[in-house]
Amino acid sequence: MTETERFRELGQQLRVDSVRASSAAGSGHPTSSMSAADLMAVLLEGGYLRWDVDQLTNPANDHLIFSKGHASPLYYSILKAAGIIDDAELSTFRQLGSRLEGHPTPRIPPTDVATGSLGQGLPIAVGIALAGRRLDRIDYRVWCLCGDSEMAEGSMWEAIEHAAFNRLSNLTAIIDVNRLGQTRETMLGWDLDRYRARAEAFGWHAITIDGHDVEAIKSAYDEVLAVTDRPTMIMAKTMKGRGVKAVEDLPGKHGKPLDNPEEAIRELGGERDLRVQLRRPDPAEPHEFAVAGGELPSWDVDEAVATRLAYGEALTALGSIRGDVVALDGEVSNSTHSELFREAHEDRYFEMFIAEQQMVAAAIGLQVRGWVPFASTFAAFLSRAYDFVRMAAISQANLRLAGSHAGVSIGEDGPSQMALEDIASFRAIHGSTVLHPSDANQTAQLVAQLADRPGISFLRLLRGKTTVRTPADEKVIIGGSRTLRDGDSVAIVACGITVDQAVAAAETLADEGIDARVIDAYSIKPIDAETIRAAARDCGAVITVEDHWPEGGLGEAVLEALAETGDRPPVHKLAVRQMPGSGKPEELLRQAGIDAEGIAAAARNLAAG
Amino acid sequence: MTETERFRELGQQLRVDSVRASSAAGSGHPTSSMSAADLMAVLLEGGYLRWDVDQLTNPANDHLIFSKGHASPLYYSILKAAGIIDDAELSTFRQLGSRLEGHPTPRIPPTDVATGSLGQGLPIAVGIALAGRRLDRIDYRVWCLCGDSEMAEGSMWEAIEHAAFNRLSNLTAIIDVNRLGQTRETMLGWDLDRYRARAEAFGWHAITIDGHDVEAIKSAYDEVLAVTDRPTMIMAKTMKGRGVKAVEDLPGKHGKPLDNPEEAIRELGGERDLRVQLRRPDPAEPHEFAVAGGELPSWDVDEAVATRLAYGEALTALGSIRGDVVALDGEVSNSTHSELFREAHEDRYFEMFIAEQQMVAAAIGLQVRGWVPFASTFAAFLSRAYDFVRMAAISQANLRLAGSHAGVSIGEDGPSQMALEDIASFRAIHGSTVLHPSDANQTAQLVAQLADRPGISFLRLLRGKTTVRTPADEKVIIGGSRTLRDGDSVAIVACGITVDQAVAAAETLADEGIDARVIDAYSIKPIDAETIRAAARDCGAVITVEDHWPEGGLGEAVLEALAETGDRPPVHKLAVRQMPGSGKPEELLRQAGIDAEGIAAAARNLAAG
């Protein structure tokens, strides 16, 4: 066969296998796979995608991200053609226990991340490309197959801007412009010129081709290799369901197996069993950063320090101790104090500007390559990236997200800047860790531990200063708590800004003969259930107090810890219940009833009742 | 004074008042206000902004959205210049109880929405412009002041694309390109040509000007009025802190009052007390849609119907009953069944493509004008717009968000498409309503009630069919529940897909002599606390069962209802605890332990224990 014939034959095989896999499953997206089959065939057979199939974790391997994750039949057909899976496994597509899920996940190597929520693959690809360029310093390429429908997601344009700004010539986006979305034509249809104008206006090298002309595809990839100062976007005009008349370029054929797969396979020239010898990358080892060593910062008890400052200082120190720690920020580094890390370790700092989705996606991309990212912004604005965080859990990503300016205690800026739902939303991420230290020493120790913590970790930080109560030499562990005061009338469980308030309330109550136990539950997930249960056993009532809405926060974590306990005292939740406005921090804490006075009043009521 | 002088003088007054307000507050963003002062002065004094200041709710009024909400000192200075507030109120900026919060909210009319999370104002402005064009059919204009930093937010590009696609010539975006973000220069700096290229590539009419040249500004606005087939973006080169040497175009001056406000005011020519007579709009009344009337759909008990289908049918019927109901969808209308509404009421249907942030923002914009939006997509993908939902609560918006394909019960598509954190995240929205009907008749009644429900409502819908158990003539109310079976051994609290499973479990248990009470808690927030408490009183144990992660969902809502009750039985939560893969719905329910068998086993354990 000529090269052109090999490309065409492999493309047909990928189509046939996509049809077969989805027919065996009884569901899936064969037509979305068929449109991109030729693009992928040339990528593989032309030697553009460099994978060491015997060592899928080879750091020099290229990365292939299916941003249009629903084209999973095509993706798995590629893995089969490359000899990574066999035909028997291909037929397990979408079955219980199969590694070949409805949308790709890292359960099947070498898949880097889960896709399937559109608009996420390209931003993550930007992160991997950033790792290649700035951290690993290996010339692997990142190839990202995108759908045209997902170009409507704003996150794609965050990625497009960042890729251009960072001149990521190691990144190639291949847009499968098959014109048809799930229910109708996209906004741009087949208007490749408008796609091209947008890509160019954002600073990309742009190529438009017929995505079924294998020679044009090859030329495009050759052109990619020659561009060294910017990313390249290939806009390929394709047809959904290409090659099978019953579905080709027809609406209403999205996300369903073909009605007559046998006929379709015949029309595509029948089954094939071509194996591609993928080109191997040149050997390469990731760059390692020299480190100076040193120790974590610590503070004296009774100092007043903002935990966000402790975060910045601890992260900076951690960066001197470990070369794999990197930081990202959403253009508020002088608020989160990640600027300290930038100043000390500029080569490991990533400015993500006001693009929180891209920030989280970049962090996901960096950890794909084994780096240890800490990404920070106001906790309220992490909500912008919630879908990315949700997907990151499916990606089995290890991420540390630091959110500053939590709660009404930020004061004058008002509710748009106050995170009040962050504990709830992060607790509901699978396998997550949610920490809310009340002082600087806790913060420093937790930052260091988070570097080795698997899964998604959220560190909630305060704008204002709090009293250092944890001695620098006391060990603070994830899943622990600190009992600040013993007592058995009432247990007050606090975290973050409310710890100082709880201690003050307990002092007032002590004068009145009410013995309050005060627990600093800095680890909200996992929570120190044993300590909570002991408090419920010993005390006549439990009060939880948090600078957060009542739902899903500390209070519910405490209730959860006590759920199976039949015999336990009443639990009274203090939380923010009315929409706050602007005001001084202490005014807003008071208004919400979560200051010392509010806590003491609640304790008195419970003691009286 | 000549017109030019009047423009300049008003610009200086807006600057002076911005400096004064933030100095009085001791915080705020005067420099970000000063850059845009001339742009706003001409908008007001030139008669471009049409506001009936005596009737701020006049439907013909223009809309002014400060997408860069941190420029609130400028916004409030405008309200003062327009005679809407007085100077005494201006000096209450950022104080407890003031209507003039750190970032604008609807507490101060005529503010349509809260801003302050960047990248939200323009997408909402698109929604208001859509309302003007397609619903109200009034020629009001929407003027949206944007920061250049927020152009990095993907949501801005969703808005830019939708505005062009819908040819919203009634929308003008004014980009205050002051070059400086919070910590550094933006990615594009003052490169107006690149901004222009992007705007034009997206289909906007683009104008670049010197944003301190009042005559150029006036020409730009005149040009806006002449463009009738597309939105216009004015890119204005400005200087942050313009007019005061100590801060003008200098880094490090973001978000803080001026060090020497008296000197700054002198440099700006001193205080002024100019009043602008804003141009009034021509009188106009919103269009009303003729409706055919009819009734909500209903189904016979024991039919098997997917609640998403019931949603589509009920919404369509509601659209025939009420002319103010409108629908939006994120290009999955054949999955959510909002396509039924589109087919019946095409003029009130908005296709938002794969742009969930823009979808929610458009819904917020439509409700600003009193329309009653229902926006639908997969519940998992509503997480994409979580920051918009959070802000919508601050905007006092009345929104109905319908999320289909909840939980592992969707089956083969896998976890990327499964909403498993949606109950938690929506419960944690201030003032929200969270409903998860288990059958079609419940769904239909709840859809109708949601039309009049204030705040943010989330309706969680199922992909698969469930048994209709609620008689069509039984009243279903928000805050209620249905007890499907009485019993006092154990109470099983279920919702959505798990109701059928709970009933089956109870039948099995009855054969074993265990009397299970089964409660269908279709209203998760507010939850029917009275019924839950009665069950806890009567039964030896409570089991909650939900197709959701354990955190923040039904189980915690039940725990919350029982929090203050000291004497209550153990509560055992059944929920999804491991990351699911693909599989058949029943296989995945079983694997998660939330099918009939898992529920029965849990009940047996509790009965034995």
From TrEMBL, chains A, B:
Its EC number is 2.2.1.1. Pfam families: Transket_pyr (PF02779), Transketolase_C (PF02780), Transketolase_N (PF00456). The keyword Transferase applies. Its cofactor is Mg(2+); thiamine diphosphate; Ca(2+); Mn(2+). Gene3D superfamilies: 3.40.50.920, 3.40.50.970. Residues 305-468 form the Transketolase-like pyrimidine-binding domain. GO terms for cellular component: cytoplasm. It is an enzyme of class 2 (transferase). Keywords: Calcium, Magnesium, Metal-binding, Thiamine pyrophosphate, Transferase. InterPro entries: THDP-binding, Transketo_C/PFOR_II, Transketolase-like, Transketolase-like_Pyr-bd, Transketolase_BS, Transketolase_C, Transketolase_N. It comes from the Bacteria. GO terms for molecular function: magnesium ion binding; thiamine pyrophosphate binding; transketolase activity. The keyword Mitochondrion does not apply. Belongs to the transketolase family. Homodimer. This is Transketolase.
